[in-house]
Design a protein that fits this description.
about 0% strand, about 55% helix, Endonuclease Iii, domain 2, Endonuclease III, domain 1, 2 domains
Length: about 220
């Protein structure tokens, strides 16, 4: 990981985001409805996008909405999301989330970070995805990809997701927060990989502390 923190001006960070997005267009899950974005995001942890998409679509076709999933049996849901990672843990969690939204929030997904994170199994990252992708509320969701890229580039030197979120919020213009997570996730999968990052092919390497410290200097 990088050991230096870069200072970006607004034009530079805007350019970085443009270049990343062009090189690795973001993958967007097919749902925009807040409830199904929530469920899809809860299912997505340690699961490939294609598998998550298919599982969410099957759940939607089987249960249609909040009341349907809230009344589902765990065994049935496990069968439907069979290929999803940690299916036995996720199945009861998404059913419980549906029950809470039905009973506590009148069938409407809450549109605030505080209320969303009161739902068991919904962390800050998942809540911010829902706020950004469904409600269009500017929010920064920090997952492993966003954390890794931010650390390597020198945007944040912290390993704490909340501190990284704060660091990103300070330098990235607010009007670019919506959609930032899916773009950086895709960039992290294709270019800034956990192992063997494609630094020589990276469109933003000239802005990256990791590239200058770990790659460029070693090649001199």
């Amino acid at each position: 990981m990088a050991g230096n923190q870069f200072k970006f001006n607004s034009d530079e960070i805007t350019r970085v985001i443009e270049l990343m997005s062009t090189q690795s267009p973001p993958h967007h899950f097919e749902f925009h409805d807040p409830f199904w974005v929530l469920i899809t995001t809860m299912l997505s942890h340690r699961t490939k996008d294609q598998v998550t998409d298919a599982a969410s679509r099957k759940l939607f076709e089987r249960y249609n909405g909040i009341s349907g999933l809230a009344s589902a049996s765990v065994d049935d849901v496990v069968k439907i999301i069979d290929k999803v990672g940690f299916k036995n843990m996720k199945a009861p969690r998404i059913i419980e989330a549906a029950k809470i939204i039905r009973d506590k929030y009148g069938g409407k997904v809450p549109g605030s970070l505080d209320e969303l994170t009161k739902i068991p199994g919904v962390g800050r990252k998942t809540a911010n995805v829902v706020l950004s992708d469904s409600f269009g509320i500017p929010a920064i969701a920090v997952d492993t990809h966003v954390q890794r890229i931010s650390r390597r580039m020198g945007i944040s030197l912290s390993d704490d997701p909340e501190e990284t979120e704060e660091a990103i919020m300070k330098i990235v213009p607010r009007d670019l927060w919506v959609g930032l997570n899916p773009m950086m996730v895709e960039f992290g999968k294709k270019i800034c990989k956990p192992i063997g990052p494609l630094c020589r092919e990276c469109s933003v390497s000239r802005y990256c502390a990791y590239f200058h410290d770990q790659v460029e200097k070693k090649s001199v």
